[in-house]
Design brief:
The protein is an all-alpha fold. The chain has one domain. 83% of the residues lie in helices and 0% in strands.
Length: 139
């Protein structure tokens, strides 16, 4: 309960500050001046009062044109180059190349598993010799 009352006190304090602190009359004067200055006319009142400043604001400081140039001349060619590299190098050579290597290993491994115990003994002995030579520091 204490937290809720404290929250209400904060809101009440803010409202009192707006009404009694002189901000509300400033709000009314500012809103009235804006309504008078920007009232509905056939021509823009800012354009009539300051045509140069109006043209600068109407041009939006040429940000849209600069962004369009950046996207068209810099970002898109770079994105197309990256897309080419991704499709050719990554997907073509690396992924399909590794898939081909894995396929060849599978074909070779299938040939090694013939179901004959004598062949498995030879593979075991070759493994023991390779492990022994690695442990002795020959590799």
């Amino acid at each position: 309960m204490g937290g809720r009352r404290q929250g209400n006190d904060v809101v009440t304090g803010m409202v009192k500050r707006v009404h009694h602190g002189g901000h509300f009359p400033r709000l009314i004067v500012g809103a009235g001046a804006a309504l008078l200055f920007y009232r509905s006319d056939k021509e823009d009142s800012l354009e009539q009062a300051s045509p140069g400043f109006f043209r600068v604001l109407a041009s939006k400081l040429w940000i849209d044109e600069a962004y369009g140039y950046y996207v068209g001349k810099i970002q898109q060619p770079f994105a197309r180059a990256l897309s080419f590299v991704e499709k050719i190098a990554l997907a073509g050579f690396i992924i399909r190349g590794l898939a081909g290597v894995a396929g060849q290993i599978g074909i070779g491994a299938r040939a090694l598993h013939v179901g004959n115990v004598h062949v498995y003994v030879y593979w075991f002995l070759i493994g023991v010799v390779l492990f022994w030579s690695y442990a002795m520091g020959l590799f």
